[in-house]
Design goal:
Blueprint lengths: L1 H5 L2 H18 L4 H32 L5 H32 L14 H13 L2 H6 L6 H7 L2 H16 L6 H22 L2 H16 L8 H25 L4 H7 L1 H10 L6 H10 L4 H14 L2 H17 L6 H14 L9 H13 L11 H29 L5 H7 L2 H7 L1
Helix pairs in contact: 2-10, 2-13, 3-8, 3-9, 3-10, 3-15, 4-11, 4-15, 4-16, 4-17, 4-19, 5-18, 8-15, 10-13, 11-16, 11-19, 13-19, 14-15, 15-19, 16-17, 16-18, 16-19, 17-18
Length: 423
């Protein structure tokens, strides 16, 4: 029994996170090396993301009997994303207005990093949502693969899959080859995931060693508010959605617990993107739905990021004693509904979108985001975990609505045997 627990990957990742915290606290000089360790693991995952997404989408569409479903699945997914992320923004605003974490906050307790703020401010001013949409169409697909641009790869894969589906018997050989290549890639991913404890250790040691737990104290109320709100969103909002679509949130969370702790350690939801795609297929979603919803969700269904952005804006207004009217807060909802959709795939994307929102509002000083720099890393875990959980729920919802969900596979997936095999 003890040997079984010790060799369990989830247990190993949790243990690695604890060691990472201890090393970060006692040996802060180790932080640069820890960052290198964590980044190396994430790079190993990243090298598999582009080809796995490509083959999953191409095979899903090429094998889909009704190609009208592609547009219908995409449309349903985008509508779902917009409704749920808007709800997340509203919840974030409500909790921050009720809890008031910024009231009485002493802005002098934090040090402002002018260089970083200037960079985020420039990125925020340069950010254009229309350009983000037009960027989806790649100029050079090889460059898209090299950069790992998920949305460009998704766009190309949809067209490629459509073209392959129209090739008739001539495309059968290529489909068979793609299936074999896809299996090889997932086998590679399973090998890389065994290194997850090392990646989680490095990520946590870097975070604690660089920022230190003492940075949490001045912004403790905001941290608590953010984590409580994320929990409310998952266990109330997403749980209600799960209940409506007749599947268990608890069983789903148990099934992806390995991914949850890996994201906790690495602060990156991309570190489990290939693994989540595999698990969503195992839990009963069709390959075509998984291929379309999961990658798109990583750019358009950022529930955790949406909550954080809305709370950050109100927190800053409270910290600087700026009273926002109901109309101004509705404006914030409108801006974040659009700007939050471009918050993926860019380093510091949360701050860039926050900067662009403050720039558009012209009410709260852009320099105020310096207050959040010290604790942003500690809240990024909550954002990433909520984003990942939300994308999985969205995939099951869309699959069920399209009758592309295998109930027998779901029951098998949540049984103890398959659960142990995957975790």
């Amino acid at each position: 029994m003890v040997k079984k627990v010790v060799t369990h990957l989830t247990f190993q990742v949790v243990l690695a996170i604890i060691f990472g915290i201890l090393i970060g606290l006692n040996f802060p000089a180790f932080a640069p090396t820890a960052k290198l360790i964590s980044q190396t693991f994430i790079n190993m995952i990243s090298m598999l993301i582009a080809p796995i997404i490509f083959f999953t989408i191409v095979l899903g569409i090429a094998q889909m009997s009704d190609l009208k479903k592609v547009g219908r699945v995409g449309g349903k997914a985008l509508i779902y994303f917009e409704v749920v992320t808007t709800l997340a923004i509203v919840i974030g605003l409500l909790v921050t207005n009720l809890f008031k974490p910024g009231a009485g906050f002493d802005v002098s307790t934090t040090q402002q990093d002018a260089a970083k703020i200037q960079a985020y401010q420039q990125s925020g001013e340069d950010f254009k949502w229309v350009e983000f949409i037009t960027h989806i169409i790649p100029k050079n697909i090889f460059d898209s693969f090299a950069k790992g641009d998920i949305l460009q790869i998704l766009f190309f894969a949809v067209l490629f899959g459509y073209g392959l589906s129209k090739s008739g018997s001539a495309g059968a050989t290529l489909i068979s080859t793609f299936e074999k290549l896809s299996k090889v890639l997932f086998n590679m991913m399973n090998v890389v995931m065994k290194l997850a404890p090392i990646g989680a250790f490095g990520g946590m040691a870097f975070t604690i060693g660089t920022y230190g737990l003492e940075t949490l104290y001045p912004l403790g109320k905001l941290m608590i508010a953010v984590y409580v709100t994320m929990a409310l969103f998952i266990f109330v909002v997403l749980n209600t959605i799960c209940y409506f679509y007749k599947f268990s949130l608890w069983q789903y969370l148990k099934f992806i617990r390995r991914e949850i702790v890996i994201v906790l350690g690495t602060s990156s939801s991309e570190s489990v993107l290939p693994s989540m795609m595999q698990k969503m297929e195992t839990i009963g979603c069709s390959k075509s739905v998984v291929g379309l919803v999961i990658p798109t969700g990583y750019s358009f269904n950022l529930d955790g990021t949406s909550i954080y952005l809305s709370m950050a804006v109100i927190f800053l207004s409270q910290a600087f004693n700026i009273n926002l009217s109901v109309g101004q807060q509705l404006t914030i909802i409108g801006i974040l509904m659009i700007s939050s959709k471009g918050a993926a795939g860019v380093t510091g994307s949360g701050f860039i979108v926050l900067a662009s929102t403050l720039t558009a509002l012209k009410i709260i000083p852009i320099e105020s985001i310096a207050i959040l720099l010290g604790v942003d890393r500690f809240m990024s875990e909550a954002r990433a975990i909520t984003n990942m959980i939300g994308n999985g729920v969205a995939t099951i919802v869309v699959a069920k609505s399209e009758k592309e969900f295998d109930e027998a596979a779901y029951q098998k997936a949540i049984s103890p045997k398959i659960d142990e095999a995957f975790n």
